Amino acid sequence: MGLITPALGLFVWTLVAFLIVLFILKKFAWKPILKTLNERETGIANSIASAEKVRLEMAEMQADNQRLLQEAREERSIMLKEAKDAKDKIINEAKEQAKAEANKIMEDARVQIELKKNAALTDVKNEIGNMAVAVAEKVLRKKLDAADSQADYIRMLAEEIKLN
Amino acid sequence: MLKKSKLFLATLMLVFSAFGTTFAQEEATQHAEAPAAAEAHHEEKGKLNIKEIIFGHISDAYDWHVMDINEHPVSMPLPVIIYHPEKGLNMFMSSNLEHGHVAHEGYQLVTEHFIHERKEAGATEEELAALESKTGKIISLDGAAIKDFSITKNVFSMLLSVALLLVIMLTVANKYKKNGAMKAPSGLQNAIEPLITFVRDEVAKPNLGHKYMRFMPLLLTVFFFIWINNLLGLIPSGANFTGNIAATAALSLVSFIVILFSANKHFWGHLFNPPGVPLPAKILLVVIEIISLFIKPIALTIRLFANILAGHIIILSVISMIFIFGAMNQAAGWGFAPVSIAFSIFMFCLELLVAAIQAFIFTNLTAVFIGQAVEEGHHDAHEHGIDHAHSENELVL
Lengths: 164, 397
Hints:
Chain A is mainly α. Helix content of chain A is 93%, strand content 0%. The radius of gyration of chain A is 63 Å and the shape is rod-shaped.
């Protein structure tokens, strides 16, 4: 049977052609193709991994931001409260100070008034005294003509002075 | 509704017209082919010899015969290269042999016609028997044992497919180099890439483990070489390269050599000294193992060759039915034609599938055999005495 007896020529040509094709394709086709495929696959795997990493980082950053925002908010409210307290304190102090100042001024004024009053009273007393003396002098000049009445009068005067 | 039925009618008509064209073409080819066979049979003129036609299609030839137009063969002569032990290398075109009618430089193409001539010239029975076994081949008239390295139809077809394969793969490889790793594949590259990754992920990795990269070039080349040749063989009037035992034998020889050279100590150890087996069984086992080692490439050879050859024979037989019926009665021939065409279209579709499947099987089995040869020792097999991996894979044969 011709079909199952291999022909030498075809056998040899096939062998030679196949080996040449194998050599050429190995060198110029399979190696670059498989290398590129490998690179692409590792590249894709890396990209996915790094995307996942970036996603996690983003989530982390977002959480951080949220936390910072929260902290800032708290700080702001604390600051506001402090400011309010300080304002109240300053106002109160100012009020207190003003009150004290007012009191002091009043006190001073009173003292001044007292002083003035006393001075005025003294003046009035002196004036009255002088006027009394003048009156007395005038009276005396007229009455001292009688000796005994003079003596009585002096005595009365002396008593009066003591009482004052 | 109306639009739909119109569309349906148009489709129907298109299908029928396509059917008609195929039918007409097949008719033309077949009508042309019948006289070609008859030509070789002057003594049987007028009688249809189906066996001759089919064997004419599936056998190798020294010229590429496409068809006959008005009994004139349209064929391309191919170079004949012969090594004669005394005369050295001889090269001439096959057209010089004139289909066995004339001897050229002492070389003769053996045909039925030539055998008939020799018979009439009074050749001995032995000589006739020797000639009979050389039908379709070239002999030297001085009786020398010549070596025939002609570029036959199969060789030529293979060289065409090799050129095609190189062009396709080098184009694709260039695209990979140009586009770099991180660009999506496109065009031809996109068509080839899934096949390459298929061979890598479904054939090489499962069978060869982490050593797969070493054998990838061989597996890829085997796969694409066989597939493209299978497909070229399906083209009407194409050559039957992968359906030729010499071609598949050469391919499996390559596989066999790779298997032998990649085999490790563990493989040879198990082959010549199966562990845990009593001596008498061991001798038997070694003999069986050695036989099985050689059966592997033989099985590869025969599987591919027989599958492709059978497919071709079936398609040719189905087409020939038209002419068998036609020879009995012309009406019967015409009547059977649609059935025959429908069946051969089905067979063509099947053969397209088989072309890919056989390429895959050859590649996969090569990978399996290499995988067995490079397999590292596993200890539980020693306890059972018989290697499990072997018995499992032997079934695939």
